[in-house]
Amino acid sequence: MTTINTSRPITDESTQPPEITPPIRVLLAEDEPHLGIILEQFLNARGFVVTIVRDGAAALEKLQSEVFDVGLLDIMMPEVDGLEVLRRVREKALPPEIIIITGNGTVETAVAALKLGAYDFLTKPYRMAEIEALVRRAWEKRVLTRDNVFLNTRLRRNEPISRFVTQYAPMTAVLGLVERVSSSASPVLVTGEFGTGKGLIARLLHSQGDHAGGPFVTLKCASLNEAKFETELLGVELGAFPGATARTPGALELAAGGTLLFDGIGELDLKLQGKLLRLIEAGSFTRVGGAQKIEINTRIVATTNRDLPRMVTAGLFKDDLMQRINIVRVALPPLRERTADIALLAEYFLSQFSVAGVPRLTDEAMGVLERYRWPGNVRELRNVMERAALLSTGGIVEVRDLPIGLEAGSGARPAPTAPLTLTELERRHIQDVLDRTGWHQGRASELLGISPKTLYRKIREYGFHRPSRLGGALDGN
Asked: How many C-alpha atoms does 410 have within 13 Å on its Cβ side?
């Protein structure tokens, strides 16, 4: 049996208490008393927790004794100026994001601040709304950085987060290939049907490679149109378009020193494929509305459940892009070919979902699992075992506890069934997630990996109705 640590624990988010977001902690270092008071009052009124100091030495003292999310530093301060404070702050293990403010900014000063690691640079006079938006963006970046540090610390300590379980020889060979190429910087294409574990393989490539200490960022290609492709991949400069009130890093920038996963790359249209190809070939990019070139320093991994060579032949996927991302190809077999793994995986998932003791599968139930074709692959098996763990009684999982493999009214004897269509599988999966989340559509869309708008459309398309006991009409919550 091969067991590989790869991703987060499997949890039912509907059973978790709602997250309470703590207030954003801001250190304000401003030597102009009147301006400092105005800015402090404004930020406090917006829900921030603000600590104000009047000089650089006091700012350094506060940063040593307290934890802050964002620092607003005036560049001209007594004793120690803002750039020197920034330089010392960036030496900390997980420093706050710093925004430099000055009354007489120059290009040289801005470049110096950014080179030292400032999140952004503002020149007085500024609008209060601009400060608020910038602080929130800086906080979001710090949260992302903190989460990546936490995840990568767990990976480096080899703590079990989730497992890739197999005793199927070809699958073991695949994992061996992943181990061999993980240290390479070459792009990797991971192919396989829906639910075969492509995302887990991508995380495994990241955690075992030279980029393990960097961030792991996922870009879902199916949700990208031309505008979102540029803003989400490249980022946006302050003032690039109406509403761009802050510099926003894109996925390429956020994944610097780590791995960028293009999830479902076969869903990109030809125009976006061409743009991505040019980016990869250039090795650099500029933010939307920007002029400064930024070098691409990230490993690219792409996943797809589509037949890209056939798409190339049909003119639906660019051959040059295929060659670029297909330096190494990892092909995952479907679960129906991994019959030796079905019992192993079923028992593993039961152990994950059981609260008091691991239920035992009867021989009849195991026979149903092994004869079933699993169109949804390992992901479907996991969902079936989660439901079986909930429905089983007396520590036994029987055929009647499985939502597959029985003809209507046939009692407890197993019978062969036709494979579910992908449409029916999707319908059942969406229904199951909605039920598990109590029809909280925001949480359900996150679990499904689709936008709330797409989930709303699917609810209409499949004719789902919110159970009366939950009350209310369709909404975006």
From this structure: 12
The model's confidence at residue 421, banded by pLDDT at 50, 70 and 90, is low
Q: Pairing between strand 259-263 and 396-397? A: unpaired
Q: How far apart are CA 415 and CA 407, in angstroms?
A: 7
Reported as a pLDDT band with limits 50, 70 and 90, residue 105 is low
Say which residues have a Cβ less than 8 Å from residue 268's Cβ, sequence separation at least 6: 221, 224, 229, 276
Which region, left, alpha or beta, applies to residue 314 given φ > 0 means left and ψ of -120 to 50 means alpha? alpha
Task: Specify the pairing of strand 259-263 against strand 216-220.
Answer: parallel
Q: Which residues of 265-275 are buried (b: 16+ CB within 10 A; e: fewer)?
A: bbbbeeebbeb
pLDDT band at 316 (very low <50, low <70, confident <90, very high): very high
State the pTM of this model.
0.56
pLDDT in tens, 286-304: 889 888 788 888 999 999 9
pLDDT band (50, 70, 90) for residue 161: very low
Cα separation, 150 vs 135, in Å, equals: 22
Q: Are strands 235-236 and 248-249 parallel, antiparallel or unpaired?
A: antiparallel
Q: What is the pLDDT of residues 109-118, one digit of tens each?
A: 777 888 888 8
- Which amino acid appears at position 80 of this protein? V
